Structures are given as C-alpha cells and as structure tokens.
Amino acid sequence: MLTLPYEEPDMTYEPRFGANYPRGSLPDLEPNPIHSLNVTSDPEREGEEEPDPIHSLDITSNPEREGEEEPDPIHSLDITSDPEEGDISEREDEEEEREDDIQQDENGHPRKRGPRRKKLTKGRQERVTVRRHEANARERSRMHGLNDALESLRKVVPCYSKTQKLSKIETLRLAKNYIWALSETLSAGKKPDLLGFVQTLCKGLSQPTTNLVAGCLQLKARSFLTDHNGEVTYPGSTAHYDNMYPYPGADLGTAPGQACSTLVSGKPSYHSRHYSYGGQYEPYYDHTSPEGGREGHLGGQISPPLNFNGIFSLKHDEPEEYGKSGHYGMRYNSVPGHGSLSSASMYRVSPEGRLHYELHLRSAGQTHKAETQSQ
DNA sequence: TAGGCCATCTGGTCCT
DNA sequence: AGGACCAGATGGCCTA
C-alpha cells in the first residue's frame, strides 16, 4: 500500500537461474507442502507427504554432471554424489537403495536420463536436514540483523514513529532523500531552505508516507506533493505555508516574519525556492532532486552531491525520547557567529525532548567539535 | 477480497 | 567445504 513504483529503472531482470517458474506452469500443489524438506522421492513410501515439487531438495553438486541437462526444472530431489561415499558399507547400503530411474513422469513423457538416483541413507538424510536447518537459522539471523539495521535507519531519518513504522522500501527511500537533502545543504554552504528540504525529503515517496512525513514535520502534504513526473506541484494556495513549520525565527537569527514572508509571498517552485534568510546567500538549487531532476548531469545516477571533501557528523541525543510522540517538528538552528555556515544544525522537536542533529562540515582548514565528540 | 508488506524457506552462486 | 549473499516462492497478516 505504501509502496509505489519508484524510479528504479527496471525492477525486472533476468533471473540468474531457473527459479522463477511461471506459477501457472507448476503442477497443482498440495495445500501446504511448500516448505517441507523432502529428501526422498520414493512414491512407494506410504504415509509420507508428497514431495514438494518446488522446494524439494536437489543436490546435484557432482562436478561430473556439469554440462548435463538440468535434471528437472523443478527442484526434485536428486542426490547423486556424496563426499563421504568412500564408506564401503554405506556404499553397499546405497547400492541397495539405489532406485531405478523412473521411466516416465507424471505426464507420461520419458524422463530425462542422467545418473541413476539413489536414495538417501537415514544418516545422510539427517545430515542434509541438519545442514538445511542450520542454513535456515543463519539466514533468519542474517535477515534479523538486516532488519535491525533498518530499524536503526528508521530512527535517524526525519520521521520516526513506533506506532506507524515506515516500510522497508520507504525507509530506504526516505533515507536516500534525507542524505540528498543534507548533502545539498552542505554543498550549498548556506542555511537550508526548509520547504525545499522537505520537498526533497518527500521526493518519490508514496502518498501515505508523504502524509506521514508531513504529519511528522507539521506540514501539509499537499504543499509539497510531486506529480507523476517527479516535479513538485503547488496546488493552489500557499497560505498554509506559514504554519507548515513553527518557524524558529529566533533560532535562525532572523525575524520570525522574514523568512516566512518569503514563503508566503513568493510563489515557490522547485527551481526557484530560495528564501532569503537575510538575503546574503546565493540561490543554490541549481540542481534538483535525487530523482533525476538533472537530466544529463547524473545520467540516472542517484547519488548525493556530497563534496567539499567533508564529512557528516550526526549527533543523535536522547534516542529514548524518540518516538514518544508521533508529532515532530523540524527546525533549523543557526549558530550565532557562524555566518560562514560551516556548521548547520537541525533539530527534530518533540514535546518531550529535542533531538539535536548537528551537521559539521569539515573542509580545508576547518576543525569542528564533531571530531572531539565520541562517535 | 485484493493488494501490500513481511518472514521464512530454499537453492544457486560467490567467496574465503 | 562451508558460510554469506541473493533472489524466487509462498503463506500469513493487515488494511482499504
């Protein structure tokens, strides 16, 4: 629901292997044989489940089989080699259990020929099962780690709510936009344009996520919606701009009405939304968005314009306060006496506490306290 | 009920 | 050889 087709050029691709069988081409499955581990295909064994035509184990690691035809497009169990085959008694055991090739498949077509199948011994079957279970556990653990990292990411992107979590894909998109927006701010070397910042933040996000971010940022989503082409549209009134965010004029060192009046009076457009914050800065949105607003410049490459030979430092205080409220604001804080804009600070504000993010730009000859703060 | 999102299982490939 | 990584497949849950 949250996810809309994003601007990834093409999400479809050629699979590396033959795993993507058209579902229609598969035989009808039992109600739920899906993930069972089938290590035998002996149809005579009573009381056992039907082999899963999809996920049954197919171990064909015998290098001698290279170049042979695939034994079966569906992963039927076919264990044809075992590194431990040197054991004579086991070999005899296998010889007994070796089954003749089934001459016909279920459709009456002759089966492909290949190495004669042999059934698993109990011990080997157990080993296969154990290895599979271990691999499953590792995979679960790996995915949990991935999800943990994603959760960490959720907490540092501008909109975080425990009650309404961003989906994975939206989290990544928002994070990318966030990085982009911050990078633009840094590369511009001037105080950020709030509206533009939020617009960049919401580029390509789904409507629900845009609304969520808007809610978090106390903005009206419609004021920075983008159209189908990724262009920002302003559907009419701008009257609500001045209550989009509680503009911290004091924090910015400008009169409260100063920047806001620019917001209201100026018809903002994505390419001309340069608020004057005192009028001392040149327009800096000469390029646009993470989503290819600069045709021919990035050539489809989506990467933030981070330069300056600088680094980010993200100071995230009191994370436990985070998420206590679903209502956050964003404000920017100038540092008195830092007219050079070597440092820009940004807050996420909740009623309970203020989270202070400081962006420190280290450029030639500049040293900032970020370096002295523990990471 | 359809669609989105997610967790999980699974097997192929790559890497150490 | 074994683990990591990846992507396909599937079912469950939730929401509009």
UniProtKB/TrEMBL annotation:
GO terms for cellular component: nucleus. It is found in: Nucleus. It comes from the Eukaryota. Residues 1-136 are annotated as: Disordered. It holds the Pfam family HLH. CDD domains: bHLH_TS_NeuroD6_ATOH2 (cd19722). Residues 123-136 have a biased composition (Basic and acidic residues). GO terms for molecular function: DNA-binding transcription factor activity, RNA polymerase II-specific; E-box binding; protein dimerization activity. Keywords: Developmental protein, Differentiation, DNA-binding, Neurogenesis, Nucleus, Transcription, Transcription regulation. Residues 81-104 have a biased composition (Acidic residues). GO terms for biological process: axon development; positive regulation of transcription by RNA polymerase II; sensory organ development. InterPro entries: bHLH_dom, bHLH_transcription_factors, HLH_DNA-bd_sf, NeuroD_DUF. Efficient DNA binding requires dimerization with another bHLH protein. PANTHER family: BASIC HELIX-LOOP-HELIX PROTEIN NEUROGENIN-RELATED, NEUROGENIC DIFFERENTIATION FACTOR 6. This is BHLH domain-containing protein.
